[in-house]
């Protein structure tokens, strides 16, 4: 089933958290001159128009990036991420939102490589179009993203970052994420892996984390931002990032920036933030 379209949700609070973590990981990897591989298993369309019918129908970005866009005291940790957004918008109006592959394209260096996969028949051509002039660095594939965690790892440079961001349309996605990361880690144990997850039913996340712990993988950091308390009602109350082999300063960076993000995104103060080790090093 491939009915999910991120264009309905682009720029929401979950995207803000995900792309903050993504940009901080990329910036940390750039501190060493040696090239690295960026692998995006569920890349989406690349960029999204916030004035589109899809985005306007849900209006999720209004409680996400639009609230950040209005702030005058944006922390330095957010600068790489925010600068990418500013680069595709004029200063006065927020019309476009970059997906994770677009953010990676803007932040990566000439010597770094991108592998991007997307299966959706509508999103894949849009993604491919974003990278037509970047074929030296980027490989855009209409293939199963989880398979790339086997076939593209380890990278020749032995440095890499994989973002795993499935739609979780099916309950099996939660198990597929763990299997995919486990396969990738067996091939490339020193790589950085970042798993995005939605909190719809907390029990699903607890089960996924338990399965991840059972793999024996170590050095796993959890970062979470909730806009409402957990609920058994319909809808996403929180989202998070599970990062394997995080850059050494990511924990400190997120402890610094997450309270600010929560205050900006959830002015009423509901929900919570979390930065904690699932499995220490």
From TrEMBL:
The record marks 4 as: Interaction with substrate rRNA. It is an enzyme of class 2 (transferase). The gene is rlmJ. This is Ribosomal RNA large subunit methyltransferase J. GO terms for biological process: rRNA base methylation. InterPro entries: RlmJ, SAM-dependent_MTases_sf. S-adenosyl-L-methionine binds at residues 19, 42, 100, 118, 144-145, 165. It holds the Pfam family RsmJ. SUPFAM superfamilies: S-adenosyl-L-methionine-dependent methyltransferases. GO terms for cellular component: cytosol. PANTHER family: RIBOSOMAL RNA LARGE SUBUNIT METHYLTRANSFERASE J. Specifically methylates the adenine in position 2030 of 23S rRNA. GO terms for molecular function: 23S rRNA (adenine(2030)-N(6))-methyltransferase activity; RNA binding. Keywords: Methyltransferase, RNA-binding, rRNA processing, S-adenosyl-L-methionine, Transferase. Belongs to the RlmJ family. The active site is at 165 (proton acceptor). It comes from Moellerella wisconsensis ATCC 35017. Monomer. The lineage of its organism: Bacteria, Pseudomonadati, Pseudomonadota, Gammaproteobacteria, Enterobacterales. Its EC number is 2.1.1.266. It catalyses: adenosine(2030) in 23S rRNA + S-adenosyl-L-methionine = N(6)-methyladenosine(2030) in 23S rRNA + S-adenosyl-L-homocysteine + H(+).
